[in-house]
Amino acid sequence: MSTYSIYVTNNSWKVQTYYVFCALPEVSGASSTSNPYSNVFAAGRPVNNDGSVQQFTITDDSFAIHSNVSMSLDGDSNIEVAPITVLNGGPMFGTCTAGSPAGSFEITVGAYDAVQYPDVWCGFGKTSAGDSDADTTPGVSVAACWQADPKATFIVTPHVNFYIATGDFTKGQVVNVTEIGAKVEIDFTGRHDRYAVVTHGTDGNFTVQLQPNPPS
Q1: All structural domains of the chain with their residue ranges
Q2: Amino acid 87: pLDDT
Q3: CA 34 to CA 123: how far, in whole Å?
Q4: Burial class, 44, CB count within 10 angstroms (exposed 0-12 / middle 13-18 / buried 19+)
Q5: Residue 148, burial from CB neighbour count under 10 angstroms (0-12, 13-18, 19+)
Q6: Are residues 212 and 115 in contact, defined by beta-carbon separation less than 8 angstroms?
Q7: Residue 8: CA atoms inside 13 Å, Cβ hemisphere, count?
Q8: Residue 55 — φ and ψ, nearest 5°?
Q9: Of 73, 128, 136, 145, which is least surrounded by CB within 10 A?
Q10: Cα–chain center distance at 100
């Protein structure tokens, strides 16, 4: 298991709060009405614009998530890591089908009454190290979610790229990451680097430097 650390330096024009989003996984089997949405994976604390630094630490492990919460994808909903209670079926973790991409896992959904249980959700989560200066705690946090369908099989292939963004969000909130404001992508795919140094400048732009060792 690899661990990735992201250091965000606030050299912008005001106090900022930074958030982490995981890139959406590839999900085969998702219908056109159940495309994956991002969740706010981690929420930092307000950071002064005097060169102060916010650190986030994320692992590359992945967990299957399921829940039955009533929510809409309007940016005001949250999904928690919680067991589902569906009497006649529901999502289950399974061994991935042979020939699937490396790092994939499978979620299979049993037969259940989708009218009686309209709010059944699947997703994947990752773990955070619980940085002392961020609003994160050790354990699994939801990274992405999508609506389940009875008798569906989802093959999920996560990625190791992340987004840092500013704004006003809540951990677990469902968002469309393509529609949020200022953000920058950090892509560790195929690299030996495990540390990213992100600088937020007075012009609103972010710069990213990937490196094999933590900043001094």
Answers
A1: 3-211
A2: 38
A3: 11
A4: buried
A5: buried
A6: no
A7: 33
A8: -110, 140
A9: 73
A10: 22
* Dihedral (CA of 31, 172, 166, 193) sign: negative
Q: Residue 83: CA atoms inside 13 Å, Cβ hemisphere, count? A: 4
Q: H or E stretch including 123?
A: strand 121-128
Tokens of 114: 């989708």
Tokens representing residue 186 in the block: 């950090």
Instruction: Give the strand pairing for 63-67 and 121-128.
Output: antiparallel
Question: Residue-wise pLDDT tens for the chain (216 aa)?
Answer: 688 999 999 999 999 999 999 999 888 876 655 678 888 999 999 999 999 999 999 988 777 777 665 444 444 444 443 333 333 444 555 555 556 676 777 788 878 788 888 878 888 888 876 554 555 555 778 888 888 888 888 888 888 999 999 988 888 888 887 778 789 999 999 999 999 999 999 999 999 999 999 998
| Distance between CA atoms of residues 38 and 130, nearest Å | 20
The full length of the chain comes to 216
Taking the CA atoms of 124, 129, 131 and 132 in sequence, report the sign of the dihedral they define: positive
